[in-house]
Design a protein that fits this description.
Structural Genomics Hypothetical 15.5 Kd Protein In mrcA-pckA Intergenic Region, Chain A, single chain, 52% helix, alpha+beta
Length: 183
């Protein structure tokens, strides 16, 4: 008898009409989606938005996305040196990533054009990590963004230029985030 009730409750929940989101709900949902995608907390996200809105060129939404794409953890992920942004963050905080030959421990570090991103010598000795993560991901047909360059053989990436809105393939409506913060 209890099983039948549970099933009927599930059917009722499935049939319940979804309420239309308010404008605020849409804006909040978009912000939460971007925060989760890049693995940021509210304070970090607000700081990035503040920096983006103070830039003179471009709109605040496009500047925000450009800044988020330039974060080192995102760049390491996009260069196929980690399977997720979370893993990229961990690899960076453990000191396994070099930017222009220097160890960087901050995943939120912003890269600039002509920066060279590589894995440390210590990682080169970690055969299982290289085989299971880096080389496996580099063999997958995932394309590296046009603003980055990857040398698969040496496992070195280079930032060719700053990312623009057209480089970000994920469907993000940044104007909703700008509207949310402009209230």
């Amino acid at each position: 008898m209890a099983v039948v009730r549970e099933e009927s409750n599930e059917k009722q929940q499935q049939k319940a009409p979804k309420r239309k989101l308010s404008e605020y709900g849409k804006q909040l949902h978009e912000k939460q989606k971007v925060k989760e995608m890049y693995g940021l907390r509210e304070r970090q996200f607000k700081r990035f938005f503040s920096v983006a809105s103070k830039q003179r060129e471009g709109g605040p939404g496009e500047n925000l996305l450009s800044l988020l794409e330039r974060r080192l953890d995102n760049v390491v992920y996009k260069l196929k040196m980690a399977t997720t942004r979370t893993q990229a963050r961990q690899v960076i905080t453990h000191g396994h990533v070099l930017v222009n030959g220097k160890k960087v421990y901050s995943p939120s570090c912003l890269v600039s054009p002509e920066d060279v991103i590589s894995l440390s010598e210590r990682v080169a000795k970690m055969e299982t990590f290289l085989k299971d993560v880096v080389e496996k991901r580099m063999k997958i047909g995932i394309k590296v963004p046009e603003w980055l360059e990857l040398d698969k053989k040496d496992r070195v990436g280079r930032v060719l230029r700053l990312p623009v809105r057209a480089d970000i393939q994920v469907p993000i409506e940044e104007h909703l985030i700008v509207e949310l913060y402009s209230k």
